[in-house]
Write a structure and sequence with these properties.
Blueprint: H1 2-12, H2 25-38, E1 41-43, H3 44-49, H4 60-75, E2 79-85, E3 91-99
Antiparallel strand pairs: 1-3, 2-3
C-alpha cells in the first residue's frame, strides 16, 4: 500500500517559491529626492504612485521603504510635509511634500 501513496503524495506537494526583493530605505530616499528635484512640490500620495516601476503596482516592501524614506528625509530636514488649513484652523486638503531649501525659511 505504501507504493500506492508515494506517487500521490509527491503530486500533492506544492512547490512554493518566495521571491525576495532587495529594497533599502537609502535607495528610496534617493528616489524621493529625485522626484522632488523634478517638481516644486508633490502630493504625498504621488510619492507612492511613483514608487513602483513604470505602471506596475509597487510591492509592500517598496511602499514601506518609501514611507520610511520620507520620514527619515523629514527628520533630516531635507524635505517638508505640509497641509493647508481651513478657515477654522483644521487641516484640510491634500498633504504636500516639498524639498527644503534655505529660501523656504526666509
Amino acid at each position: 500500500k505504501k507504493e500506492m501513496f508515494d506517487g500521490d503524495i509527491e503530486a500533492l506537494v506544492l512547490k512554493h517559491e518566495i521571491e525576495t526583493e532587495h529594497v533599502t530605505v537609502r535607495d528610496r530616499m534617493m528616489v524621493v529626492m529625485d522626484l522632488l528635484e523634478q517638481n516644486e512640490s508633490v502630493e504625498f500620495m504621488q510619492i507612492f504612485r511613483t514608487a513602483g516601476e513604470a505602471d506596475a503596482r509597487p510591492t509592500r516592501s517598496v511602499l514601506v521603504a518609501t514611507f520610511l524614506a520620507v520620514l527619515e528625509l523629514a527628520r533630516l530636514s531635507a524635505l517638508r510635509i505640509y497641509q493647508g488649513l481651513s478657515e477654522r484652523g483644521t487641516p484640510e486638503g491634500a498633504i504636500r511634500v516639498v524639498i527644503s531649501t534655505a529660501d523656504v525659511y526666509a
